[in-house]
Amino acid sequence: MQEFDRFFDNVFDRGWMPMLHRDHPLWERFAGFDKGMPKVDVIERDAEVVVRAEVPGFEREDLEVSVSDRSVTVKGEHRQEKKEEEGEYFRSEITSGSFSRTVALPGDIDADKAEASFKNGILELTLPKRNKANRRKVEVK
After folding, report:
1. 56 versus 122: which is more confidently predicted?
2. Is residue 47 within 8 Å of 128, Cβ to Cβ?
3. Averaged pLDDT for residues 97-112
4. What is the mean pLDDT of residues 62-82?
5. Among 29, 24, 23, 27, which Cα is nearest to 12's?
6. pLDDT reported for residue 51
7. Taking the mean position of all CA atoms in its chain, how far away is CA 20?
8. Residue 125 region, left (φ>0) first, then alpha (ψ -120 to 50), else beta?
9. Model pTM score
10. What DSSP letter does each residue of 86-118 carry, written as one string?
């Protein structure tokens, strides 16, 4: 019960709902929820959409990409096992990680002409649009 009271004392210690501020220590506890999710940039150009995803620690073979007319899904999974034996000393470490992220696209793309490249932990997809955007300048009054 004391631990429960201590929790509430920490949460409600200064002002109204201090844990909603990013600098509150509680955010550190929840930071792990987004660690496996890659950061993604979606860049819309006249004739194509470029999607860049940061996937450090993954190899090209670890990645799976699927494209539809209106979204892109990037999945990754890797597993690494290290064993060390010396006499009576034995150590084994297994690390694994996976993620799945689906990103909505700003327009219809031609999934059959999609291209992907991977270099230095960055996955880049070039997705041609079905209909090229007609941009024009608009005067601000």
Report:
1. 122
2. yes
3. 90
4. 90
5. 24
6. 96
7. 23
8. beta
9. 0.64
10. ETTEEEEEEEEEEEEEEEE-SS-B-GGG-EEEE
